[in-house]
Amino acid sequence: MLHGRHAASAVSPALPLRYPSLLMPRSRPPFEITREAILGDGIRARMRAMDPELTLLTPEEHRASIASLMQQRPDSGDIWLFAYGSLIWNPLIHFVEKRIATARGYHRRFCLWSRTGRGTTAKPGLTLGLERGGCCRGVAYRIGQAQAAHELEVVWGLEMLTGAYAPRWLKLETEAGGLHAIAFLINRGHTRYAGRLPEDRVTAVIAEAHGPLGPCATYLFNTVAHLEALGIRDSRLQRLRDRVAARIEQAEGT
After folding, report:
1. CB neighbours of 15 closer than 8 A, spacing ≥ 6?
2. Could you confirm whether 159 is annotated as catalytic?
3. Cα separation of 248 and 23, whole Å?
4. 31-195 — its CATH code?
5. Hey, how many other C-beta atoms are within 10 angstroms of the C-beta on 84?
6. Rounded CA separation 80/46 (Å)
7. What is the pLDDT of residues 172-198, one digit of tens each?
8. 246-254 long-range contacts, CB within 8 A, separation 24+
9. In angstroms, rounded to a whole number, what is the distance separating the alpha carbons of residues 44 and 235?
10. Core-most of 75, 112, 201, 239, by most CB within 10 Å?
11. d(CA 218, CA 3)
């Protein structure tokens, strides 16, 4: 069981990095996701500037979505949130506990186009979504009941700007027992849904895409590095990381 008030957004130097030169970008990205950027509407403004035709959910729609999910809540007390991608290494929320957790019946996959974060409209990147089938090990964060309303608005301000995810309650397994947590499943009806792309294409997209948040490859490498640091082995992501790294190294002539 792991405890903490909140997690830092930077990669810890203690992580066992297999590709340190690729994990850390050579230059600072033009934009970083922080609590301040979300609460101050910086992310929303950035996305509008990059793609004026992009439809963004309003704060009122976010609050309505949260309220609807809370009405379906299977238990009471503190709120649990399941992280399977960037929320593992940049959670942004204040939490009182975190546990390694398993969601059965779902797996993480690069299936969401990123045109304003890890890519551009001309050359989109890919980020992770939770798809049906298999199982997924990640991190469950416990948010104190008194802070839950505010912290969930932070999460929705990050994950639900375009409605590309479908928030659901999932039953998770942990060493301390089962629990119900909010998880963001991929919304297959969304225009950003990429479907189940061949691994060769996913490799090429991640190796080549770059956006305001930096290289798409850094998103992948950060996720795998933090999973490994937690003792979580995801063979599919590890293989993808190795293929992307090899492609980048070949392109750079190293």
Report:
1. 225, 226, 228, 229
2. yes
3. 12
4. 3.10.490.10
5. 24
6. 29
7. 999 999 999 999 999 999 999 999 999
8. 247/203, 247/204, 247/207, 248/22, 248/207, 248/217, 249/22, 251/207
9. 34
10. 112
11. 26
Instruction: Please determine, for residue 22, whether its predicted confidence score (pLDDT) is greater than 70.
Output: no
Tokens coding 60: 């009122």
Q: What is the per-residue pLDDT across 131-166, written as a single tens digit (0 to 9) for each?
A: 999 999 999 999 999 999 999 999 999 999 999 999
CA atoms within 13 A on the CB side of 165: 23
Q: Would you state the structure tokens that stand for residue 151, as one six-digit string?
A: 């912290």
Q: Do the beta carbons of residue 206 and residue 104 sit within 8 Å? A: no
Q: How far apart are CA 225 and CA 89, in angstroms?
A: 9
Domain-by-domain residue ranges, the chain?
A: 31-195
Contact assessment for residue 118 and residue 168, using Cβ atoms and an 8 Å cutoff: no
- Which two structure tokens, joined as six digits, stand for 153? 């608005």
Residue 13's pLDDT is 35
Give residue 8's pLDDT band: very low, low, confident or very high (50, 70, 90): very low
SS3 62: helix
DSSP bridge partners of 106? 132
pLDDT tens digits along 211-220: 999 999 999 9
Single out the catalytic residue among 153, 159, 173, 208: 159
Q: Write out the two tokens for 244.
A: 């992307």
Confidence of residue 12 (pLDDT cuts 50, 70, 90): very low
